[in-house]
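Attaching the record inline, Q. Sequence:
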Amino acid sequence: MDISALSGVSSEYLNVYAKRADLVESKDDSFGSILSAMMDSLEETNDLQNTAEAEEIRFAMGESENTHDLLIAESKANIALQYTVAVRDKLIEGYRELMQMSV
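Structure, as predicted:
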């Protein structure tokens, strides 16, 4: 799983993009809102995975001969999963850093 393309994206860029696209509320930076956004992201990733699996089944059973739809569904699911894993890894890395700090 290659996520090297995500390393060049800065958090400031993501913050500006999210605020412009109204993906996040700019006033509420509480833990609850961040947790809610992550849960929504996980649900979306799960939905994309289920859609890709349904397309695979339809193609395998001969109900669909369009490989383009299958490829798009699988690509969306793969990218969402890569992003979710990258975010999870960064959260774990941040947690470990916090635990190693001496108080």
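The chain has one domain: 28-100. The longest helix spans residues 67-100.

More tomorrow.
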